[in-house]
Amino acid sequence: MVPVTVIPRSPNLRMSRLADTRRGRATALAAVAALLLAACTGQAATPGGAQAPSAGSAAAGNRAATLNSAPEPVRVLPDATPVELAVATSAALFASAPVVVVASAADPDGIASAAERAGALGVPLLLAPIPPAASGAGAPSGSASPPAVATPPPATSLTDRLRAEIRRLGAGTVLAVGSGVPDQLGDLGDVRVVTDLAELPDVTGPSTGDPVTVLVYAGGPATTKAAAAAAAATARAAGARVVPVHGSDPRADADAIGMLAGQPVGSVVAAGSGFGPPTRLAGRLAVAATGVQLPGGGQVMFPGRRLVALYGHPGTPSLGVLGEQGEQASIDRAKAVAAPYRPLSDVPVVPTFEIIATVAQGAAGANGDYSYAADPAQLRPLIEASGAAGMYVVLDLQPGRADALSQAKLYESLLRLPYVGLALDPEWKLEPGQLPLQQTGGMDASEINSVIGWLSDLTAAEHLPQKLFVIHQFRLSMIRDEPALDTGRDDVAVLIHMDGQGPTGSKDSTWAAVTAAAPPGVPFGWKNFYDEDHPVLTPAETMTRRPLPVMISYQ
């Protein structure tokens, strides 16, 4: 269970006629509730166990809208069309309504006007189908865009769903906003269809019900905007808290995180199938509620930032540039190395340290694993100073004969920090009988996956922002059974980092091989070597690599 706080609705306003002003909604923090990891999708005929009144009952004297008494903890609504999402939102929140407002899904101005009226009345806003000729194009590509609605079913089918929801609500009157809407509704039997505000009956908004937060898409194509506007209007009419989300992951939207931070959400209705599945959404909301963001903003690693890193071990110049100067000088140098990338990058550039936490060594050592493990307490001051400076930190493991997962667990206390990720360097993995520097090592995907799974579980349990997990590679043999890598964890971003060195042509050949062999969708990193590369690429030259690296290291 995830602890949450909830925001109650303000007292309802009784209205004799619709005024030209919007109804205000006061909010205040209330008690802590529980965000359960259970939900269902789709729509129910009588959600929340409420008994739907018969059509026309409002005309017989029922003038108050009522809410479902037991909203589901997390519910993801279908959004194949704006009509269906508007119906699903109404069904999720309202048990009954004496009046329903209807606008055309193809009329943005009409939807805006209808949203104001539905909010003032405290009743749902439904949408009439978009004529086929007016259907818009799909959503533009890119992770920040919400999913586009699918090809709509026949308009008659959608109209039937609209009419069914009006009947379920027991509405006695429909306020049609926009030309052509009454014709689209057709014959509703004893339900009156009016266009004049003066013809509305007296209406009372719903009484305070169980607290609900409704997630809606922000942006996207016209059809998505229409659906989101209707869902948001119905949510506000029900007194729910509305959180717009760019894309479909609240962790990737700094504004959404700001709205959710410190006051988790109670019951959740997510207006769009892209937010699901519900259990995953519940975990994402728990992270968003912490308000803790990664350097560069948000709680998802990519594509929201580009890391530029100094690699090495503190106090050991031979292992990389990170060890060539003291703590503050290293922080200053990392910022200076990152600075030239800012005008070249379309996302924030984050100075980074990649610290070799376990160092391959020629002697077997006390554990016989040919790997020296630095004390986490010795690394912590530099790591915390880096975090305070707005940097990201990656802990690199050179396991020798040690088990990679066992080494990762040594640094659990540091990995609980939100700005610390993990890397594996298979080059330094030794099989029994092997010694360092006598061969290039490799790791099975199964061993790598054990670390990914552990890191994912730790991140989820602590409600941390997504963790970066780097796998170094300059030969394909370094990652055995590479297609089996577990790259689908929601709490871990897996990145393959190309560590080739030497002439530019040789590095480009290695880059081509590494990127071609990687699992689909994996981002990549590139390393520049000050001493071994001939020449060392400039930032502008580095940024000509394709695919574009999202992590660039210097050794």
Structure, described:
An eight-stranded parallel beta barrel has the order 15-16-18-19-21-23-24-25, surrounded by four helices. It has helices at residues 82-93, 108-121, 155-169, 181-185, 222-237, 254-260, 278-290, 327-338, 376-388, 404-409, 412-415, 445-461, 504-517, 539-542; strands at residues 2-5, 14-15, 32-35, 66-67, 74-76, 94-96, 99-104, 125-128, 173-177, 192-194, 203-204, 212-218, 241-246, 267-270, 306-312, 349-360, 371-373, 392-397, 420-424, 443-444, 467-473, 479-480, 492-498, 524-528, 551-554. 27% of the residues lie in helices and 21% in strands. It has 555 residues and is α/β, with parallel strands linked by helices. The radius of gyration is 28 Å and the shape is elongated. The chain has 14 helices and 25 strands. Helix 1 packs parallel to helix 5, helix 2 packs parallel to helix 5 and helix 6 packs across helix 7. Strand 15 (306-312), helix 8 and strand 16 form a beta-alpha-beta unit.
Topology:
Layout: E1 2-5, E2 14-15, E3 32-35, E4 66-67, E5 74-76, H1 82-93, E6 94-96, E7 99-104, H2 108-121, E8 125-128, H3 155-169, E9 173-177, H4 181-185, E10 192-194, E11 203-204, E12 212-218, H5 222-237, E13 241-246, H6 254-260, E14 267-270, H7 278-290, E15 306-312, H8 327-338, E16 349-360, E17 371-373, H9 376-388, E18 392-397, H10 404-409, H11 412-415, E19 420-424, E20 443-444, H12 445-461, E21 467-473, E22 479-480, E23 492-498, H13 504-517, E24 524-528, H14 539-542, E25 551-554
Parallel strand pairs: 5-14, 7-8, 7-9, 9-10, 12-13, 12-14, 15-16, 15-25, 16-18, 18-19, 19-21, 20-22, 21-23, 23-24, 24-25
Antiparallel strand pairs: 1-3, 2-11, 4-6, 16-17
